[in-house]
Design goal:
Layout (H helix, E strand, L loop, with lengths): L2 E6 L6 E5 L11 E6 L2 E11 L14 E3 L6 H13 L4 H8 L2 H4 L6 E8 L5 H10 L1 H12 L3 E3 L9 H9 L3 E8 L19 H15 L5 E5 L5 H14 L3 E5 L7 H10 L7 E4 L5 H12 L5 E4 L11 E7 L16 H12 L2 E6 L4 H8 L4 E5 L10 E6 H7 L9 H12 L3 E5 L9 E2 L17 E3 L4 E3 L6 E3 L13 E2 L4 H11 L5 E4 L9 H10 L5 E4 L12 E6 L13 H13 L10 E6 L5 H7 L3 H15 L6 E9 L2 H18 L4 E3 L3 E8 L2 E10 L2 H14 L6 E7 L5
Parallel strand pairs: 9-14, 9-15, 10-12, 10-13, 11-12, 13-14, 16-26, 17-24, 17-25, 23-24, 25-26
Antiparallel strand pairs: 1-2, 1-4, 3-4, 3-5, 6-7, 6-8, 18-22, 19-20, 20-21, 27-30, 27-31, 28-30, 29-30
Bound molecules: adenosine-5'-diphosphate (ADP) and zinc ion.
The site of zinc ion has 7 residues, from loops.
């Protein structure tokens, strides 16, 4: 007899198995009644197993609340693929597919009482009412003026119920319960804007997009420099689908960080505003429930959201758009560890609709797919509004350092000088400092030399406890040098100052300037980012100092100078994607300058001015960068030529986490087939988080499915001790 695994409604999210009564057509995603201890409860079927375990009997499930599952068959197919590819139990996949607020009845529709006129009294009766019952007369007049219906609350709520009841008794009005949408954007108004006339590049891209909407064949990658008008192409592609009666899914890296893009969609589709749904993390449970049902019932046909919106239950999809497709935030960092962009491509295939990925700095994975013919490449080479790309200057901090006693200042002389000039002219400045990366590399301030691993060509990480350098890719170890191996400078040391310190420096250097700092510490309050950006837009702020929160998609016409304080910070981290990320970040940050009438300038401070990521970014040369970086990846067997998986252990006990991984490593070593490269176990870049010690080990293989299947088989055969958790991350993005 088959059994069903059911996720019980309620805050504790319990999961129990039940047998399925004969004849019942239970499917995953169905809502169901179930017995729980001595009462009856409700839940959602997560998974169905054909054979029931024999060693104990299961209680039978109650009846189905609705024979229709909450998710579409196509999304179910996507879910099954995910479970297999990412090696995640179906249970966790289903939780990702159906938001909690949808599974749990308690958030179901909110209603309100509305007064409807069903029989408007004639004038004579109205005159009588005016004298005898002025209140009733007033209600009828107001409701009539409002078009025949009005919420009770707007008429005064409880204070008028008696009068409304009398009117109802006389058959003039009816009081109805109506579902109301909890509109997250209530009160906001959007001015409709009109489509722009496409320039030749955009028109050529659009032609291909239209062809793909009409007859989907393969995904498209649109490579367009910052400000080249990619968003306009998205908007017109969306319009095309709407005109055809189809729906549109738009994925953005992080909704709260891309308010301007969301605004542009809302403005363009202002006339069908109620068909646009925006899914973001700030929605209340009730709002999420309502938005989900609006999508499920095809009331909303344009869905804009971050990563998880890839599961939006749209039907009849015309196109899936993934903006800034290279962004890391598309990767989910808890199980199921899916990549939103990759799922978008797969969903496009399942739904047979067009898929449009876009970026100024495409990921090498996607770009490689255009070279191999899997994707179409669309190119927008120039800025759309006749602006030229900003001029980028590189400041060699090794030379700057020699000018000052005690090493280089945070602001180099040229950067400081330029800032003074721009501020004097009433223009705005953005300073950028990427503090990310926990592992720190050893770099010489004299010559810029970074200690690298012989085997991996990646920076090694300093481990204080062992007084040693360790390669986080392959585990190779080396002695920490006391002076620079290249130039003999004893000042070799770690990089490190953060945005907070910069803020202090700026206050001293520019006491008159109005300053804002944007990072996760200062932007905790809801809407803090939106408000700060708005103030910046209104020129109430002169300088913004920020982390990567300000790198994306922002458009400020009056910003003429962008300064990157330390381009090396993201570069010398032990991750083969460090260079790619730095190139992307520099290009994106530079793209914030000169987006108006005024010409833009960018100043990049670095200790390694000759590194390819910096040089190619300086020349706005994505193709050149991709070319040489792909060469490096190929040579060392990194993605996109292979798939990369990480196995991690986490525990409160350091030794047990380490030991478990070493054990696994032994098993993998003997059982893995040839063709899979197995790294050594080592402490994770973030050695301890949330009180847990973390160790990891990397695997590279040509077939993703093969990699995932073999590893999962071995993991299943080697259960960890109780106090150790194992993490498996397929197509891992961060180390
Ligand atoms: P991207 O998304 O590639 O960064 P945007 O879509 O933000 O570029 O476009 C940059 C600027 O160029 C915007 O101000 C936009 O209004 C303008 N723009 C885009 N397409 C056109 C066009 N065809 N004609 C005139 N201006 C355009
Ligand atoms: Zn190495």
């Amino acid at each position: 007899m088959p059994a069903a695994r059911v996720l019980i409604d309620g805050p504790s999210e319990l999961v129990f198995d039940y047998s399925i009564p004969e004849g019942m057509e239970a499917k995953p995603g169905c809502r169901v009644k179930i017995p729980l201890r001595n009462r009856s409860s409700t839940g959602t079927i997560l998974d169905i197993t054909e054979e029931m375990p024999t060693h104990f009997t299961l209680r039978p499930m109650g009846e189905l609340i609705d024979p229709e599952p909450l998710i579409t068959p196509k999304l179910m197919e996507l879910g099954k693929w995910m479970a297999d590819y990412y090696g995640t139990p179906m249970e966790l996949v289903m939780r990702a597919l159906i938001p909690e607020s949808v599974r749990q009845e308690s958030h179901s529709e909110k209603t309100r009482k509305v007064v409807h006129i069903i029989d408007q009294p004639d004038e004579e009766t109205m005159d009588k009412l005016a004298k005898r019952a002025p209140r009733q007369h007033l209600i009828l007049t107001l409701v009539d003026a409002a078009g025949g219906q009005m919420p009770l609350a707007d008429l005064g709520g409880g204070s008028v119920t008696a009068s409304v009841k009398s009117l109802e008794k006389n058959g003039y009005v009816e009081l109805k319960d109506e579902a109301i949408r909890r509109d997250p954007d209530e009160g906001e108004e959007f001015l409709e804007d009109q489509p722009l006339k496409l320039n030749p590049d955009q028109a050529a891209a659009m032609e291909q997009v239209i062809a793909q909407i009409d007859q989907p064949e393969k995904p498209m990658l649109m490579h367009g420099v910052t400000g080249s008008g990619k968003t306009e192409v998205y908007l017109q592609a969306a319009q095309r689908c709407i005109d055809l009666g189809k729906s549109v899914l738009v994925l953005l890296p992080e909704i709260s960080l891309t308010p301007q893009t969301v605004q542009r969609f809302k403005s363009r589709f202002a006339s069908i505003q109620d068909q646009v749904a925006v899914l973001h993390s700030h929605l209340s449970q009730g709002e999420r429930f309502d938005e989900w049902h609006r999508i499920r019932t095809s009331k909303a046909r344009i869905v804009i959201g971050a990563r998880s919106a890839v599961f939006a239950p749209l039907t009849n999809l015309g196109i899936i758009i993934v903006d800034e497709e290279h962004e890391n935030s598309y990767k989910q960092d808890s199980a199921p560890r899916y990549h939103g962009r990759d799922l978008a491509v797969l969903r496009g295939h399942i739904e047979n609709c067009a898929v449009l990925l876009g970026s100024a700095t495409p990921s090498l994975e996607s770009f490689h797919n255009t070279e191999s013919g899997k994707y179409h490449l669309l190119t927008l080479e120039e800025r759309a509004d006749n602006q030229s790309l900003p001029i980028i200057r590189i400041i060699d901090m090794r030379i700057e350092g020699k000018k000052h006693k005690g090493g280089p200042a945070i602001l180099s002389d040229p950067l400081r000088g330029h800032m003074e000039k721009k501020l004097a002219e009433g223009e705005q400045v953005i300073l950028f400092l990427n503090r990310r990366g926990f592992a720190r590399s050893l770099q010489c301030p004299g010559c810029g030399h970074v200690c690298e691993c012989r085997h991996c060509a990646l920076p090694m990480t300093y481990h204080r406890a062992e007084e040693r350098l360790i390669c986080h890719m392959c585990g190779h170890q080396a002695i920490t040098p006391r002076k620079c191996p290249e130039c003999g400078d004893p000042a070799i040391r770690f990089q490190g100052y953060g945005t907070e310190q910069v803020e202090g420096v700026l206050k001293k250097c520019f006491p008159q300037a109005r300053l804002a700092r944007i990072d996760t510490d200062t932007m905790r309050r809801k809407n803090a980012l939106r408000d700060t950006l708005r103030a910046f837009h209104q020129r109430k702020i002169d300088i913004i100092i920020g982390t990567q929160m300000i790198a994306k998609g922002l458009h400020f016409p009056n910003v003429t100078l962008v300064g990157v304080l330390n381009a090396d910070l993201g570069l010398h981290v032990p991750d083969f994607r460090a260079g790619e990320r730095t190139f992307q970040l520099l290009t994106q940050v530079a793209g914030r300058a000169g987006r108006g009438e005024l010409e833009g300038e960018v100043i990049i401070q670095t200790f390694t001015p000759h590194s390819p990521s910096i040089q190619f970014a300086r020349h706005h040369d994505f193709l050149g960068y991709a070319d040489q970086e792909l060469e490096f990846r190929k040579q060392f067997g990194y993605p996109p030529y292979t798939h990369c998986a990480l196995i991690g252990t986490r525990s409160n006990h350091e030794r047990r986490a380490e030991f478990t991984l070493e054990n696994l490593h032994q098993r993998l070593k003997t059982d893995l087939p040839d063709g899979i490269t197995l790294g050594e176990p080592m402490p994770a870049a973030l050695t301890k988080a949330h009180g847990q010690y973390r160790f990891q080990l990397m695997l590279l293989g040509h077939s993703a499915r093969g990699l995932s299947r073999h590893i999962n088989k071995i993991l299943a055969q080697t259960p960890p001790p109780e106090d150790v958790t194992i993490v498996f991350d397929m197509d891992a993005m961060g180390f």
